[in-house]
Write a structure and sequence with these properties.
Layout lengths: L3 E2 L5 H5 L3 E7 L4 H17 L3 E7 L4 H6 L7 E6 L2 E7 L4 H8 L2
Parallel strand pairs: 1-3, 2-3
Antiparallel strand pairs: 2-4, 4-5
Length: 102
Amino acid sequence: MALQNLTADNFDQTISQGVTLVDFWAEWCGPCRMLTPILEEFAAKHGDKVKVCKVHVDEQGPLAARYGVMTIPTVILFRNGQEVDKRVGVHPITEFEKMVGV
């Protein structure tokens, strides 16, 4: 399952309902590139219950600033539009499963 790219135009609507994992990343970031296949695997396994999305920090700087993203990759878990958990760096799929509770 492909990861959905978010921008300022669709961010709030996308995270407003249900459970959403959002990866704040950049193309030049090595750890971000390492995390992408992990999140793709997570989306393939749990995409029926959890939206998995990406925000490109170089293109969407105000969104990154809004959530205090200072280091990438940063993955934030939202439930019905509210930030409930955050991880910085590369983690195994099991860490994201624990975060979400699947």
